[in-house]
């Protein structure tokens, strides 16, 4: 029997991560009301997003107390912050548990008919303004692309390092092809996701957007100018696919069913394609060029001030859900220049938040509950996942949220100042921030200079966020209240959800 057990040991070891993720899912499920309370399950890069039948059944405090849970966020869905990597492994286990338990406890016909109808109307109303809904839909187009942007960005950075060092000359062309292939066709993916998000046929959106990257467009002249492959980039692809959705829906309403399968796709691609070639590519190209020139001019001429404003206001923008408008701008800059100069500055907001949290930890000497929250959330904060610190520490306390913004402003001004001096710092992908952004850094000078400036910005953000919080965030009365034996119970926050919230910047 001993040898048999020995042979099984490696297999058991291989199953250990799977078992751990299942345990996490099993711990979460009863605290959110069980399988009957789950209307929908989804996840982004850091959060498990649940649609709930009855919000009142959720045990918030017990859920937050789980070691694997970094925080919770309430928006149009109930979002449990598990962190990058973890959520992608826990979500399938959670879905499997819900399906298994639901099968053992069948829903009644009434429950099936009412699925999703009992979601909190107030939560929807708070975040259902036209602007927020539009920005959320735009974010939904670009967020699925972030893993590919990160992977290709890191490979591009590695390839650049090898080229500069003169190492492995036989491998670098292959790495360049791997890193560049996705960016060369990103318009197609944007078009596909746009059509899917706005209710069209995804492949038709991708087909129309693919026109933008087709080499043959160089034979077409518009407004006296010859088109260039890729002109208009992701903005042109978004516009082309959106037009295709409206053309397709128009055709579906008017074309007889017998002819629909032939006529609708043909007219959708033809009409949208012609408008894209003879209008959208040129217009989107002008807008994309203006964005690139505008970002460079802003940092070249007002770098320190621009960094101060961008770094200081990014956390409030996240609270309002307006930061989602920056996602296509980041993507456009990456497509044009190879990196976005805005993300490293915005990432300084996360540095200010970390410095603020350390100061609160030292000030709250007798608040074990708050100090435990900070200890568990700080590692994620250093890696750019800021939600646990924002919604579990600084925002409920009030004034520390402002001092955290001050730290972000100082770090942004530091990076912006060097941009004014000619040393640009950029990121080859969107998504990570904090220390996780180091592998994606790129600039117009050497990698050492770029890393040094970004690291200096982080240290500045940490220091100013800490000092501002330690010395100015608390009155004598608030310090006394903070250090009472009873654990602090932060007011529930309802922050907006998004692709860049996981950056923590």
Would you give an account of this structure?
There is one protein chain. This protein is mainly alpha-helical. Helices cover 66% and strands 6% of the residues. The longest helix has 64 residues, at 257-320. The chain is globular.
Give the arrangement of secondary structure elements:
Elements: H1 2-28, E1 38-43, E2 47-52, H2 60-65, E3 71-74, E4 78-81, H3 86-104, H4 109-113, H5 121-126, H6 130-142, H7 146-165, H8 172-184, H9 186-197, H10 202-213, E5 221-222, E6 225-226, H11 233-254, H12 257-320, H13 326-337, H14 343-346, H15 348-363, H16 368-382, H17 387-397, H18 399-420, E7 425-427, E8 441-443, H19 447-472, H20 476-482
Antiparallel strand pairs: 1-2, 2-4, 3-4, 5-6, 7-8
Question: What would the keywords be for this entry?
Answer:
disordered N terminus, 8 strands, disordered C terminus, mainly alpha, 505 residues
Give a brief outline of the structure.
The chain is mainly alpha-helical and 505 residues long.
What ranges have pLDDT less than 50 throughout 5 or more consecutive residues?
A: 1-15, 105-123, 486-505
Order of helices and strands: HEEHEEHHHHHHHHEEHHHHHHHHEEHH
Q: Count up the helices.
A: 20
Please tell me the overall pLDDT: 84
Largest sheet: 4 strands, antiparallel
* Overall body shape: globular
Helix share of residues? 55-70%
- Structural class estimated from helices and strands: mainly alpha
Please give the number of β-strands.
8
Instruction: Evaluate the radius of gyration.
Output: 25 Å
Sequence of strands across the biggest β-sheet: 1-2-4-3
Q: What share of residues are in beta strands?
A: 5-15%
- Tell me the distance between the termini: 55 Å
């Amino acid at each position: 029997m001993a040898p048999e057990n020995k042979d099984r040991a490696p297999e058991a070891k291989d199953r250990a991560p799977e078992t751990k993720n299942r345990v996490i899912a099993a711990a979460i499920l009863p605290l959110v009301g069980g399988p009957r309370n789950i209307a929908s399950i989804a996840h982004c890069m850091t959060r498990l997003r649940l649609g709930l039948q009855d919000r009142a059944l959720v045990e918030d405090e017990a859920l937050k107390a789980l070691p694997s849970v970094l925080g919770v966020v309430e928006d149009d869905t109930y979002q449990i912050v598990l962190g990058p990597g973890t959520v992608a492994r826990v979500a399938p286990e959670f879905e499997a548990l819900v399906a298994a338990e639901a099968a053992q406890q069948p829903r009644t016909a009434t429950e099936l008919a009412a699925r999703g109808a009992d979601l909190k109307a107030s939560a929807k109303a708070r975040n259902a303004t036209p602007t927020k809904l539009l920005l959320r839909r735009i974010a939904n187009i670009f967020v699925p692309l972030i893993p590919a942007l990160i992977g290709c960005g890191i490979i591009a950075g590695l390839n650049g390092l090898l080229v500069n060092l003169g190492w492995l000359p036989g491998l670098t062309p292959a790495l360049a092809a791997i890193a560049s292939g996705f960016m060369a066709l990103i318009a197609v993916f944007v078009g596909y996701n746009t059509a899917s998000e706005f209710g069209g046929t995804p492949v038709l959106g991708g087909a129309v957007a693919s026109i933008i990257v087709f080499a043959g467009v160089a034979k077409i002249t518009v407004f006296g100018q010859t088109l260039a492959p890729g002109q208009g980039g992701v903005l042109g692809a978004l516009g082309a696919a959106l037009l295709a959705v409206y053309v397709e829906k128009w055709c579906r309403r008017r074309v007889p069913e017998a002819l629909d399968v032939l006529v609708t796709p043909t007219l959708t691609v033809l009409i949208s394609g012609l408008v894209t070639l003879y209008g959208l590519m040129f217009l989107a190209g002008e807008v994309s060029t203006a964005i690139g020139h505008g970002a460079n001019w802003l940092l070249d001429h007002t770098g320190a001030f621009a960094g101060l404003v961008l770094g200081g206001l990014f956390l409030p923008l996240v609270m309002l859900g307006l930061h989602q408008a920056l996602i296509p701008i980041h993507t456009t800059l990456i497509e044009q220049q190879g990196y976005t100069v805005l993300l490293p500055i915005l990432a300084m907001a996360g540095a200010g938040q970390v410095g603020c949290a350390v100061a609160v930890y030292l000030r709250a000497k007798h608040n074990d509950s708050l100090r435990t929250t900070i200890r568990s959330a700080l590692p994620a904060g250093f890696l750019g996942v800021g939600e646990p610190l924002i919604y579990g520490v600084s925002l409920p306390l009030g004034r520390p949220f402002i001092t955290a913004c001050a730290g972000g402003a100082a770090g942004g001004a530091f990076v912006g100042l060097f941009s004014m001096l000619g040393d640009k710092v950029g990121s080859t992908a969107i998504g990570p921030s904090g220390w996780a952004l180091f592998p994606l850094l790129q600039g117009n000078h050497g990698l050492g200079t770029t890393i040094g400036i970004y690291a200096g910005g982080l240290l500045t953000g940490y220091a100013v966020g800490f000092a501002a919080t330690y010395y100015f965030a608390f009155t004598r009365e608030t310090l006394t209240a903070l250090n009472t034996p009873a654990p602090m119970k932060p007011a529930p926050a309802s922050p907006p959800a998004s692709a860049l919230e996981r950056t923590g910047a």
